[in-house]
Structures are given as C-alpha cells and as structure tokens.
Amino acid sequence: xEVEVAGRTAELGLALAALALLAAAAAPVWATGLAFAAGAAxxxxxxxxxxxxxxxxxxxAFDRRHLAREGAVFxxxxxxxxxxxxxxxxxxxxxxxxxxRLGLYGVAAAPVWGLLGAAQLLAVxxxxxxxxxxxxxxxxAGRVVAIAAAGAAIGAALAAALAAVRVPLxxxxxxxxxxxxxxxxxxxxxxxxxxxxxxxxxxVVAACGRQAWGLAAQVLVLLAAAAGNAVAIPRWELAxxxxxxxxxxxxxxxxxLGLALAAxxxxxLAAAAGxxSAEAE
Length: 281
What we know:
The chain is an all-alpha fold. The chain folds into 2 domains: about 1-60, no CATH class; about 65-280, no CATH class. It is built from 11 helices and no strands. The longest helix is centred in the last third of the chain and has 55 residues, at about 210-265. The relative contact order is 0.12.
C-alpha cells in the first residue's frame, strides 16, 4: 500500500504541474493526455524502484482463493466507481442532449472529479494506519465519526474554493467559450463534501475487511443515480443532472458512514490484515 501511495503521489503531482503549464501556454486539449502520460510514467518509475529494492528469495505464500476473492471485490469497486463518474455523460448522450451541451457538462465536471481524485489519494494514504488500528481493536465509533467529519470538512473546503474561482478557472483551463459551464461547476462542486466523506468511510470499511459491503453499497448508489437521472434529465437537462449528482453523493455519504460504523463494530480482521493463514485459522 505504501508503494501505491508513493506512486499515486508522483503521478498526480507531475500531472497537475504539467496541466498548469499546458493551460498557461494555451496548449490544445489533446495535450492533457501527455500530462497524464507523464504522470503515469513517474508513478511506474516509483514502483519499479521499489521492486528493485525487494529482498531476493521466494515471495511469501498466499492462498490463491483469498487473493482472487479480495481482488475481485476491489476490481468491482473500481469498475463501479468509474461507471459512477461517467454515468451522467452516458445518460445525457442517451437522451440526445446536444454535443455542445455535453461539452459544458464535461468542463464543469472535470475539476470536480480531479479534486475527488486527490481525496482518493488521501484515503489510500490513510489505509495502512487504519488497517493497523482495526487489527488492534482501536477503531472505535468516535474515531470513525471523526474520520468521516474530516472528509466532509475537506470536501466542503474544496467545494467552496472551486466555487469561488470557477470563472477564472474555466477561462484559463478551457477557454472563454466555455464560461457557460461556470454556474454548473458551482453546483457540481457541492457533491465534494459527501464524496470525500464517502472515500474516507470506504477506507474504514476496507480496513475492517468488509470490502464486499462497500461494493454492494456502491452498486446501489449507481442504480439510484441512474434512476434519478432518468427522471431529471428529460425535465431539467444539465441542471437536473447536477442536482441528482449532489443528492446521490450526499445520501451515499450517510450510507457509507453507517457501513463504516458497522464494519468497525464487526471487523473481519483476517481479511483486513491480509493474512490468508489467519483466515484459515
């Protein structure tokens, strides 16, 4: 996990720095792919350096069934999150919203998802500490609530900052032709308190070895968002889509906190510690 944190930090840091330079130079939109490619290369370099530092000899034995089961859950979590992040765009296209309107939504959503990625990095960085606390029985309800409150506070600060700079941000990064996305960005930004809370609550659930609970909740949230958008998009188009996003992430945050508290009360410590032999015992 420490390797992932280091790699993700290098990836995100370099990508954001490159994006700032490209925006200042008024580079074409396709150049953003170069920024993320450079960031990915930096992350891979970190991972490669860690691999070279591993001690020689055979790796420790792991039960294949344990790895397959845990890996499948994490894969499902990642796929469902990616589907959730792109759901609005797919549904707007399905309801034949004009391409220029789709572009406005994409511009408004991009900074929000970018900041959510930073919150996800923070959550990943907290995982080793929380897993050790869960294994030691120190992950009490009060601590879980404090973690969730910190996530909500971080999200609220990010949302307020994003709403405050929405006009110059859109003008600088995307160009004045997309200034129509600024009001939508101000609305979408307020999904960040719930989303950041949910990220940290999800790490608590994972640290307690209850990843399957998080996957089930995430699938329910995806279905609720799809149903809400099916009603809102024909009536209110982009504004309805943004309203559904804020509402769904906020409700999901409450659900995530409930799951985190339940997981802390009933941890699956063998899975949380990642010890197949302990699970077998």
